[in-house]
Design goal:
By secondary structure, this protein is of the alpha+beta class. The protein contains seven helices and nine strands, in the order ββααβαββαββαααββ. It has a five-stranded mixed sheet. The structure holds adenosine-5'-diphosphate. It comes from Bombilactobacillus apium.
Length: 285
C-alpha cells in the first residue's frame, strides 16, 4: 500500500485535520513485474536459437561445408531453427495484438460441428501426407496415431470468430500429436448443453505433472523446455489458445494424469435458438 498524507489547515494556519489516501499499488507492481519478466523471457527465447544458428554457421564456415553429409544435416538444423523463430515472432505479434485489444475479432454465426469436422479432416490429411513424406525421406516408419471423432450430429450454431477459434483448436491438436505415443489415439469430442458447446481433445501421451498444470497456459511455460524445443515448440501455443477463447467469452482448461494422457477442453457460449438460416421457419414467407 502507498499512503499519501495532506493536512487540512485554516487560513490562520491552524491544522484542523489530516487526510490520508491509501493507494493499492500491488496490482500495478505485479503488471510491471510481469512485463519485465516477459521482456526477459522473449530475449532469452530468441537468443537461444540465434546462438545455435551462429554455431552451426561457424562450423560450416570452418570446414563442415566440404562434407556433403554434415553440411546437409547442419543446413537442416539452421532451417528448422529459423522456422521456429519465425513461428515464435508471429505468435508474439498475435499475443501483442490480443493484449492491446487491436486483434480484430470478426464474429459470425458458424456451424461449430461443421467447423470442427473440417479442422479434423485437415489434420487427417496432414498426418497422412507427413507420414508419407517422412517415410520417403528417411525410410523409417514414423510415429503413428489415429484421430477418433465423437461428435454430435446436430448443427450447433455458435457466434465466434472462426479463424481465431481454428487457431486455438490447431494449437491443441498439434500438441496432442506432438505429445502422443506411437500408436496413440486422439479422441475428439463435441457435446452441447443448454448454454454451451464443449469441445475436448484427449491424448494418451505423457500427461502433465500436477504441479505444472496451473502454469501451462502461461507464456513460454513448458514442462520440459528441451523436449518442447526439439519438437519445434515455442511455449506460446496454449497462451494464444487461452487468449482467443477468453476474448470470445469462452473458457479453456485441462485435465491430465501423468503417464496416462491429457484432455484439453474449450467451452463456448451457445444459444440453441440460433438456426443459422437467414429466416426462422415461422417468419419465412
Ligand atoms: P509448446 O510449443 O512447448 O508445445 P504450448 O504453449 O503449446 O507450447 O504448451 C506448453 C507446454 O504444455 C508444453 O511445452 C508441454 O510441456 C505442455 N503440454 C501441452 N500440451 C500437452 C499435451 N497434450 N501433453 C503433454 N504436455 C502438453
Amino acid at each position: 500500500l502507498q499512503a499519501d498524507f495532506s493536512l487540512i489547515k485554516r487560513s490562520t494556519g491552524f491544522v484542523t485535520g489530516l487526510v490520508c489516501v491509501l493507494h493499492d499499488v500491488t496490482e500495478q507492481q505485479k503488471i510491471d513485474r510481469d512485463r519485465r519478466q516477459f521482456v526477459s523471457n522473449v530475449s532469452h527465447e530468441l537468443r537461444t536459437p540465434l546462438t545455435s544458428l551462429r554455431s552451426y554457421e561457424e562450423a560450416l564456415s570452418d570446414g563442415a561445408m566440404d562434407d556433403p553429409k554434415l553440411s546437409k544435416q547442419f543446413l537442416h538444423v539452421i532451417q528448422e531453427e529459423t522456422e521456429r523463430m519465425i513461428r515464435m515472432i508471429s505468435s508474439l505479434l498475435s499475443l501483442s495484438r490480443l493484449d492491446q485489444g487491436t486483434a480484430k475479432i470478426s464474429v459470425e454465426l458458424v456451424n461449430f460441428n461443421e467447423l470442427f469436422s473440417y479442422i479434423l479432416d485437415r489434420f487427417d490429411m496432414m498426418i497422412q501426407k507427413d507420414q508419407e513424406k517422412q517415410l520417403a525421406d528417411s525410410g523409417v516408419q514414423p510415429k503413428r496415431y489415429q484421430i477418433k471423432r465423437l461428435l454430435t450430429h446436430r448443427d450447433l450454431w455458435v457466434e465466434i470468430d472462426p479463424d481465431k477459434i481454428t487457431q486455438a483448436i490447431d494449437n491443441i491438436l498439434n500438441n496432442a500429436l506432438k505429445y502422443s505415443p506411437d500408436g496413440g489415439t486422439i479422441t475428439c469430442r463435441l457435446v452441447y448443453t443448454q448454454n454451451n458447446v464443449i469441445l475436448s481433445i484427449a491424448d494418451q501421451g505423457l500427461g502433465i505433472p500436477r504441479k505444472d498444470l496451473k502454469r501451462i497456459f502461461d507464456r513460454f511455460y513448458r514442462v520440459d523446455k528441451a523436449r518442447s524445443r526439439k519438437q519445434g515448440g515455442t511455449g506460446l501455443g496454449l497462451s494464444i489458445a487461452k487468449e482467443v477463447v477468453e476474448a470470445q467469452g469462452g473458457h479453456i482448461w485441462v485435465n491430465s494424469t501423468e503417464n496416462r494422457g491429457s484432455t484439453f477442453y474449450i467451452l463456448l457460449p451457445y444459444n440453441p435458438a440460433e438456426t443459422g438460416g437467414e429466416w426462422d421457419d415461422e417468419t419465412a414467407e
